[in-house]
Design brief:
The complex is a heterodimer of chains A (343) and B (274). In chain A, 48% of the residues are buried. Chain A has one domain: Orthogonal Bundle (ABC transporter involved in vitamin B12 uptake, BtuC). Chain A has 14 helices and no strands. Chain A is globular. Chain B has a single domain, classed as Rossmann fold (3-Layer(aba) Sandwich). Helix content of chain B is 30%, strand content 24%. In chain B, a hairpin with an 8-residue loop joins strand 1 and strand 2. Chain B is globular, with a radius of gyration of 20 Å. The chains are: A mainly alpha (343), B alpha/beta (274). Chains A and B meet through helix 9 and helix 10 of A and helix 2, strand 6, helix 3 and helix 4 of B.
Chain lengths: 343, 274
């Protein structure tokens, strides 16, 4: 039975995808407004700071940014896969249960209060976004559970209503804010990747990778869960517990991604679908390949965002939406699972 | 008692005031084929959900393999009991082979992949149900009869002593109805499986099942061998419909006859009989 997934087959595919991702990241670090040469970068930092400018740009500017884009892309795509599975809804994305509006509200509150203190290398905006998104997710989950029986529907409804309510609050606060405050908020709401401290990057990398690996560990249970709660139980999966774990992990990595980069749209919706169309719906394959594809996609999108209107920079969310939409439609029209050589 | 399923004094209702099932007791010995029949709303599916632990009884107990059903973890219960349900809403395009392979979930480790044993079991289940021809096709592209066989294949691949089915032949044509029951009978005879099937088709139950549990709308029930339990008076009473019963070979059969049926007397005025 060649159709079924084997560990070996999957490992090979993941390794190939990782190699492609590494190549994309490598290429993108050398693309930018300032040309840098591989030779100069490999020459090392030199004796005095500022002696080898190419190396400094590579290590301090390009590399952290490319890594950040990859992390955010991986987190959003993986979370998208998981939410589509547990909500059994192909329209779900990482933001559907209130993370976006919660984080946005946190950010605008931080901007309006003019908070300047920071904590463990995190900017106040990132911390407020993180707190805002987790609090909202907790609120939506609690309301959804209280609403009872058909948990999936009540969760979705609670998420949509909370999103709408918080969006209204965001608009209200934006309209009473000063214009320079509004400007930075809007950039954040559109999704914006900037250079971050190495310590922040490391912490985010560890959390997101751990989250993705943990989600991969329950991916077979996610497969079963797409058949609904009853059938999941018939097949030996404790449905409510699995859903809570999956949701918690997805919300956690999304909150990290959002606090680092703002609301980068479309990645969490389009990448899982694109990967599913090509590789099929088995989550043991869908989850890791989506995470890697999401990473590569956002790295490319961010490279375009920082070069296309140079020396100015676009918010990366604009690129993901403009590029992602038509790309997805093309894929939807052209592909089905008949592409057998990719399986 | 020595049944693989033992139900004792079971009562259940969806609200504190209501009861659908009242003091229900029966047992199913290993290897028996039991039909659960009764009118709509008598609690057949509710009973199935109680048996597989989805619902908790208000009173009484259900034992599977001598242990209380609630004492099993979802995983352990899934190794003893497979369920084929009525409704199915496909969300993602899983192929037939992928759907059947999910039956092995309770046997997989954490980063679970099917072992070669698992694959053999899956291949056997596909072969037994004659579904291997479309193993790589998406489930959504199959006909109702094919899809039902896929879910039975999944239940077989779960490799459990007990099989519960909720109206496995609804929406199927005559050929496929008989096909499903032949398949179930084969599982009973060749593999010694205990099969509990909800059915609206009394006549199929008579031909294939050993025992029948007939639930009435008022919470009453009859349980026993099909030849003893199923007779015209009881069916007329439980289903509140006039029936004609006759014999075909060794089996009795029952035909419902409504007020306007051709032989009951009244015919529509415009009918032109020649």
């Amino acid at each position: 039975m060649s159709e079924l997934l084997t560990a070996k087959n999957l490992t090979v595919k993941i390794l190939i995808c990782l190699a492609v991702l590494a190549a994309v990241m490598g290429l993108c670090t050398f693309v930018g407004t300032q040309d840098i040469s591989v030779k100069n970068v490999l020459a090392g930092p030199g004796t005095a700071p500022g002696e080898n400018i190419d190396y400094d740009i590579f290590v301090r500017v390009r590399l952290p940014r490319v890594i950040l884009a990859a992390l955010v892309g991986a987190a959003l795509a993986a979370a998208g896969v998981v939410l589509q599975a547990i909500l059994r809804n192909p329209l779900a994305d990482p933001y559907i249960l209130g993370i976006s509006s919660g984080a946005g509200l946190g950010v605008i509150i931080a901007v309006l209060l003019g908070v300047t203190w920071s904590f463990w290398a995190g900017s106040p905006i990132a911390l407020f976004a993180f707190a805002g998104s987790l609090l909202t997710v907790w609120l939506v989950w609690t309301v959804g559970c209280l609403a009872g029986k058909s948990q999936v529907t009540s969760l979705l409804l609670a998420g949509v209503v909370v999103n709408a309510f918080f969006s209204a609050l965001i608009m209200f606060l934006t309209s009473i804010a000063k214009s320079e405050q509004v400007y930075s908020t809007i950039f954040w709401l559109m999704g914006n990747i900037t250079e971050k401290e190495p310590a922040v990057l490391w912490a985010a990398a560890v959390c997101i990778l751990a989250g993705v690996v943990a989600l991969f560990a329950i991916s077979q249970r996610l497969n079963v869960l797409t058949f609904g709660e009853q059938q999941a139980k018939d097949l030996g999966v404790a449905a409510s517990r699995t859903r809570a774990i999956a949701f918690g992990l997805a919300a956690f990595i999304t909150a990290i991604a959002v606090s680092l980069s703002g609301l980068v749209g479309f990645v969490g919706l389009v990448v899982p679908h694109a990967v599913r169309l090509v590789f099929g719906p088995d989550h043991r394959r869908l989850l890791p390949i989506s995470a890697i594809t999401g990473a590569a996609f956002l790295v490319v999108a961010d490279t375009i965002a920082r070069t296309i209107v140079a020396p100015a920079q676009l918010p990366v969310g604009v690129i993901t939406a403009i590029a992602g939409g038509p790309f997805f439609l093309l894929l939807l029209a052209k592909y089905s699972r008949k592409v057998s050589w990719l399986k | 008692m020595n049944g693989i399923i033992e139900v004792e004094n079971l009562s259940f209702g969806y609200t504190p005031q209501s009861t659908i099932l009242k003091a229900l007791s029966f047992e199913v010995p290993p290897g028996q084929f039991v039909a659960i029949a009764g009118p709509n709303g008598a609690g057949k599916t509710t009973l199935l959900n109680l048996l597989c632990g989805l619902l908790k009884p208000k009173a009484g107990s259900i034992r599977i393999d001598t242990a209380d059903v609630e004492s099993y973890s979802a995983k352990e219960l899934a190794k003893r009991m497979a369920v084929v349900r009525q409704e199915f809403v496909p969300v993602f395009d899983f192929s037939v082979a992928e759907v059947v392979s999910m039956a092995r979930t309770p046997y997989l480790g954490t980063f679970g992949f099917e072992s070669s044993t698992d694959k053999d079991v899956i291949a056997e289940a596909l072969a037994m149900t004659d579904t291997e021809r479309f193993a790589s096709r998406p489930l959504a592209q199959l006909s109702g009869g094919e899809r039902q066989r896929v879910f039975i294949a999944r239940a077989l691949a779960q490799d459990t002593p007990i099989l519960l089915l909720d109206e496995p032949t609804s929406f199927l044509d005559m050929k496929h109805q008989v096909g499903i029951y032949d398949l179930l009978k084969k599982m009973q005879l060749d593999k010694g499986k205990t099969i509990v099937a909800i059915t609206h088709d009394i006549n199929l139950a008579v031909q294939y099942c050993d025992n029948v549990l007939l639930l009435a709308s008022d919470g009453g029930y009859s349980h026993g061998p099909v030849e003893e339990v199923l007779n015209a008076e009881l069916i007329e009473k439980v289903f509140a419909v006039k029936t004609f019963s006759g014999k075909a070979g060794k089996s009795r059969f029952f035909l419902p006859r409504g007020k306007f049926a051709r032989d009951t007397g009244r015919t529509a005025p415009q009918t032109n009989e020649s």
